[in-house]
Amino acid sequence: MSYKEIIEHYEKCFDDFGFSLKGVDWTKEDQANIRYQVMIDSIYFYEKSFKLSKKVSVLDFGCGLSHLYNYILKKNLKQIDYTGLEISEKFFNESKKKYPQNKYILGDILKEPSILKINYDYIILNGVFTEKRNLTYDYMFEYLKKMISIIFAKSNKAVAFNVMSKHVDYEKDILFHLSIDDMANFLSKKISRNFIIRNDYGLYEYSVYIYK
């Protein structure tokens, strides 16, 4: 059992659908845009403004095909200094080819935490923990715990990520439906009591903002 199964799944999606939303296993553009905005909102919540007065550094962790960056461009968010990180060499190369002006990092933070040479104001993990494929709930939860523990230490202001909700009509076995109680217990005991759980944007998931 290994988180590499998730990476292999996404790479297969890219092989099947190319440089598109389906290439990272998103299906509906309107829903994807909601997720991007919710991730960006983590910045506005901290800055207490919907207009950024100065540059902020953002690490798009598990950037895939850099769709979040494309959303940043569409919204003309010039104050965001974007960096992408990928564990998949395939996605890393595609993003670099598409957006050569950006900074990208390749590597597995669980095996080599030192790949993050600096801290970032905000670290965003959009879709990193929404699928578990054939992994068990316990394995996936431990994976999330390890990742967030490392990543939170590398943020100056906040970390934002999403998981699937358990408050749904039915759960899909391949998706990671994480109990809000389990999430809150982990964060308050191991990471920080200073967090927001957002369940207000109409999708069958929730997002978490953890603040310094």
Write the SSE topology.
Elements: H1 4-17, H2 29-47, E1 56-61, H3 67-74, E2 80-86, H4 89-98, E3 103-106, E4 120-125, H5 137-153, E5 155-164, H6 180-191, E6 195-198, E7 205-211
What this model shows, in words?
Strand 1 (56-61), helix 3 and strand 2 (80-86) form a beta-alpha-beta unit. The protein has six helices and seven strands. It is globular. The chain is 38% helix and 21% strand. The chain has helices spanning 4-17, 29-47, 67-74, 89-98, 137-153, 180-191, and strands at 56-61, 80-86, 103-106, 120-125, 155-164, 195-198, 205-211. It has a seven-stranded mixed β-sheet, sandwiched between helices. With 212 residues, the chain is an alpha/beta fold. The relative contact order is 0.15. It has one domain (4-211): Rossmann fold (3-Layer(aba) Sandwich), CATH 3.40.50.150. The mean pLDDT is 96.
Q: So, the CATH homologous superfamily?
A: Vaccinia Virus protein VP39
How many alpha or pi helices? Answer: 6
- CATH class call: Alpha Beta
What structural class do the secondary elements suggest?
alpha/beta
Instruction: Supply the number of structural domains.
Output: 1
Shape: globular
**Rg for CA atoms:** 16 Å
Helical content class: 25-40%
What is the N-to-C succession of helices and strands? HHEHEHEEHEHEE
Assembly context of the chains:
single chain
Kindly report the spatial arrangement of strands forming the biggest sheet.
3-2-1-4-5-7-6
Tags for this model:
alpha/beta; Rossmann fold; single chain; 212 residues
